[in-house]
Inverse folding.
């Protein structure tokens, strides 16, 4: 009896030893993984960290001090950069950017939702051909359509206005968003829509009160993507806008760089920090919706 008890104790002790060894192994593995991820993350973020630090340096210190921490921090880059070399401050350019971004976001959300709902829920002639054509535009480089679009907008008299930047988004010109919403809709059961139809709801009422609330994670992702892409867009405004008072931030930064004479890099870096701040804030605040929208949109029903 005593031998059996001793054997049981030894067995328990051996099991605890194995379990403790496994726990230590898992902890060491977790520490190594997090250390590696932290190192890679720091390596990727270092240019951004350096940008923020350099924006508080003088123009001479940027070239003499390669580190990111300024020896003598100064706000001259932000003060002088905000004034710009034009009659307008950077506040005007930020308002112009907002005036471009908001209509594009609203137009994209409305038009892409309507088009995606039609493709996902209705049968009509040439549906497969039209959808294949839509998806084929995803493989078409934007540069291929630049000249035809420019000629079209020139003939319409829309040059030096925001219409060439707004109108394509208002007519579901971004095929990627349509595709993402179609995939999201295919993963949503039709039971609630059919129940609404039985209760007498029209197609528009079903879309607004049943489908749109279910689409909200994907719609938020669409708006966030459009916000970030529009904030970073340089070529579109460069082609269609010629008046400085209508420039967005992306073009205003280019105005600060004069290749014919010396210029202050601290001003450019300071305004670059301000330019990327809205996109960074929106991304980190709404990161959950990015992930939810993309993962849900990638499910095929």
């Amino acid at each position: 009896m005593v031998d059996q008890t001793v054997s049981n104790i030894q067995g328990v002790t051996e099991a605890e030893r194995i379990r403790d060894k496994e726990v230590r192994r898992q902890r060491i593995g977790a520490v190594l993984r997090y250390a590696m991820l932290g190192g890679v993350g720091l390596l990727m973020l270092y240019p951004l960290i350096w940008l923020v630090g350099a924006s508080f340096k003088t123009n001479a210190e940027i070239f003499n001090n390669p580190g990111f921490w300024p020896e003598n921090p100064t706000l001259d880059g932000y003060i002088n950069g905000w004034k710009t070399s034009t009659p307008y401050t950077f506040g005007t350019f930020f308002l112009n950017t907002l005036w471009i971004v908001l209509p594009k976001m609203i137009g994209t959300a409305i038009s892409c939702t309507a088009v995606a709902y039609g493709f996902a829920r209705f049968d009509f002639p040439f549906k497969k051909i039209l959808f294949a054509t839509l998806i084929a535009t995803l493989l078409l480089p934007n540069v291929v359509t630049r000249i035809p679009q420019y000629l079209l907008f020139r003939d319409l008299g829309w040059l030096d206005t925001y219409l060439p930047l707004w109108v394509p988004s208002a007519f579901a010109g971004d095929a990627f968003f349509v595709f993402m919403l179609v995939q999201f809709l295919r993963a949503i059961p039709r039971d609630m829509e059919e129940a609404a139809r039985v209760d007498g709801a029209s197609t528009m009422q079903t879309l607004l009160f049943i489908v749109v609330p279910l689409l909200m994670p994907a719609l938020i992702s669409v708006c966030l993507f459009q916000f970030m892409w529009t904030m970073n867009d340089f070529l579109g405004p460069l082609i269609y806008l010629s008046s400085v008072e209508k420039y967005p931030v992306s073009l205003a930064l280019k105005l600060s760089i004069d290749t014919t004479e010396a210029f202050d890099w601290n001003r450019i870096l300071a305004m670059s920090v301000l330019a990327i701040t809205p996109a960074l804030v929106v991304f980190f605040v709404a990161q959950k919706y990015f992930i939810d929208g993309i993962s849900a949109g990638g499910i095929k029903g």
